[in-house]
Amino acid sequence: xxxxxxxxxxxxxxxxxxxxxxxxxxxxxxxxxxxxxxxxxxxxxxxxxxxxxxxxxxxxxxxxxxxxxxxxxxxxxxxxxxxxxxxxxxxxxxxxxxxxxxxxxxxxxxxxxxxxxxxxxxxxxxxxxxxxxxxxxxxxxxxxxxxxxxxxxxxxxxxxxxxxxxxxxxxxxxxxxxxxxxxxxxxxxxxxxxxxxxxxxxxxxxxxxxxxxxxxxxxxxxxxxxxxxxxxxxxxxxxxxxxxxxxxxxxxxxxxxxxxxxxxxxxxxxxxxxxxxxxxxxxxxxxxxxxxxxxxxxxxxxxxxxxxxxxxxxxxxxxxxxxxxxxxxxxxxxxxxxxxxxxxxxxxxxxxxxxxxxxxxxxxxxxxxxxxxxxxxxxxxxxxxxxxxxxxxxxxxxxxxxxxxxxxxxxxxxxxxxxxxxxxxxxxxxxxxxxx
Length: 436
Hints:
Strand content: 5-15%
Oligomer: single chain
Number of strands: 14
Radius of gyration: 24 Å
Structural class: alpha/beta
Helix content: 40-55%
């Protein structure tokens, strides 16, 4: 193994009283919550693109982060060195999973064939690193947005040549994900949208995107990949409007094209807020339709209108998030991937650990709070009481579909004006605070 992170030992759990920045205060991986270990509840993953390819650059300035594994020389050898550094970091942090885009782990060549050979060379090393450390691949995906060829989109590109190139790239990325034992595969349409409708045939582009996803689902069956196919919504940035705007839009799209049995959703907090929603709203909506598959754990800055991808640090929000996930029985093959990056000013190697430790502790606190909420049953009982009029009588007939407007009119005329019933919002909020 490499030794890029000198002086940093295996990160351990020291408990809430610890003042050690390089120790867990709440995340105790073997601790059982509702009969399941924290490790298995949370299934933490490191995002290769931010943690090992991020430089600290932003739209207003270049990178600030100098990493010892980013040296001069052959790009493939540098990529292999980077992979060794990544697995050293993840092993010391104690995460069970990681995620990547194909272009995160290996450089593009002069041709697609050369690019595929580059990817194969690095994947061979990563497969051995997985075997050496026990760290697994949560999901893989293809970068169909960075290269200039994708400036007008990939699956929704008006040029069929680009569509075909994107299909070839996804085919290879799915094969690599299978080879590495990935448990999911993600589609993020970074440029699948439009800047102006003046030059856009929206119906044709949506049809093409559905055709692309349908071919991917068919290829999944052909190669024997048993993982989950996930779609990650985002409303804007870089396009003015992206077709995977939010959970509701994606669900409607999947149902409209008959793809809802082949795909689930990978939801991100910062994308939810960019769409004008709370993260919990997006999770709850996807969960109610049985389509919540995985989570990108981060947060945005509400004072800024762009994707800041900060680490989650709000235990109260984490409790609401985990409550939804516990309610649906967990994430299955999904997990919590830290699609989050250090601030441009956080340049030390130890900051990489501190940021992930903080995020892991935050979600662990959320898990503990959500478990107490469910064990106590107080909040759930109050919600049930609020809807109790549907448990019998006319309410039960409404839910059971055994009444109609005529009968409801007759019932309302006889019953008179409804009593006012308080929503008790402040009491609900006060109770939430008592758990977090």
